[in-house]
Design a protein that fits this description.
Radius of gyration: 18 Å
CATH architecture: 3-Layer(aba) Sandwich
Protein name: beta-lactamase
Organism: Sphingobacterium olei
Strand content: 15-25%
CATH class: Alpha Beta
Keywords: Hydrolase, Signal
Number of strands: 11
Distance between the termini: 47 Å
Helix content: 25-40%
InterPro entries: Beta-lactam/transpept-like, Beta-lactam_cat, Beta-lactam_class-A
Shape: globular
CATH topology: Beta-lactamase
Order of helices and strands: HEHEEEHEEHHHEHEHHEEEH
Pfam families: Beta-lactamase2
CATH superfamily: DD-peptidase/beta-lactamase superfamily
Length: 299
């Protein structure tokens, strides 16, 4: 089981939150930016060293879309910690696993050999749906992962797809659900080595550093600054969670949307444009001595 007992994790979170102060200046900037957004949006921002936060609909439930792959990652590493899975463990791909959407594994040849580490990399770097569903299965499915999330104090973060008893909730939120605050908290637990154990948290951190989809929030942060992140997209929802190892200290933010009017699939989608603006506002707010004005996206 987890190296850190639930009471210790909860006490660390309580202490962390009790010392925080609302960053009113940043909150005002963000509220001004999102006021005309045609959809629902939730934002949570926390600067660890400065003990400052912003919470805008941060406890509201939103669809995760592919951000659900982070809870799946946690479930897989719990199995690794328990000795039920190994990163170098070999698996044989079956073309019956083909599933559309993002990713590369759907193009594998039938009976191709792969391993657990490659599957995790595909899930996080390329947001691969086939490997994600396979890993969800290996982690015990929603019935295995959801109780683990609850023990971490993440009561609203759930796997809905292929989880008994959650069909109606799946119809509403899709593959998974979370809140901006809970998903940001999950990233902080990984960053602080408080998830399962230090060595497991560190390995998860390394996987989350490699992102193919880097044209949203990451494009608004200097490329030489280390980050971990995950995006999620479905027709009427866009989301992203990012932890930044900034010069002033680590900060994390999660931006989730739903009921979006603009359901286009291009980089000018309203929610994606807004996400980039929010990321840039946050960076320049915390790093005024190192303002960053990104180049236009390369086509």
């Amino acid at each position: 089981m987890m190296k850190y007992p639930l009471f210790l994790i909860l006490s660390l979170l309580v202490n962390m939150l009790s010392a925080q102060k609302n960053d009113k200046k940043l909150e005002d900037k963000l509220k001004n930016e999102i006021q005309n957004f045609q959809g629902d949006i939730g934002i949570y921002v926390q600067h660890v060293r400065q003990n400052k936060y912003v919470a805008i609909q941060a406890d509201t439930i939103f669809p995760t879309a592919s951000i659900v792959k982070v809870p799946i990652l946690v479930g897989v590493f719990q199995k690794i910690a328990e000795g039920q899975l190994q990163l170098n463990q070999s698996f044989r791909y079956d073309e019956k696993r083909v599933y559309g959407g993002s990713g590369l594994m759907q193009f594998y040849k039938d009976s191709a050999q792969t391993d657990l580490s490659t599957m995790i990399s595909l899930m996080l770097t390329y947001s691969d749906n086939v490997s994600s569903l396979w890993l969800q299965e290996l982690a015990g499915g929603g019935t295995g992962i959801n109780p683990l999330l609850e023990r971490l104090g993440l009561q609203q973060t759930k796997i809905n797809s292929r989880t008994p008893g959650r069909k109606e909730i799946w119809k509403k939120y899709g593959w998974g659900q979370t809140t901006p605050k809970e998903m940001a908290t999950l990233f902080l637990l990984i960053r602080n080595g408080q998830l399962i154990g230090q060595k497991y948290s560190d390995k998860m951190y390394r996987y989350l550093k490699n992102q193919f989809y880097n044209e949203r929030s990451l494009s608004q942060i200097p490329p030489y600054i280390n980050t971990i992140s995950k995006t999620g997209s479905v027709n009427d929802a866009r989301g992203e969670v990012v932890l930044v190892n900034a010069p002033s200290g680590d900060y994390v933010f999660c931006i989730l949307t739903k009921n979006n009017k603009d359901q286009s699939w291009n980089d000018q989608n309203e929610a994606e444009v807004l996400t980039r603006k929010i990321s840039n506002i946050i960076w320049n707010h915390f790093e005024p001595k190192q303002p960053f004005v990104p180049f236009e996206s390369i086509k």
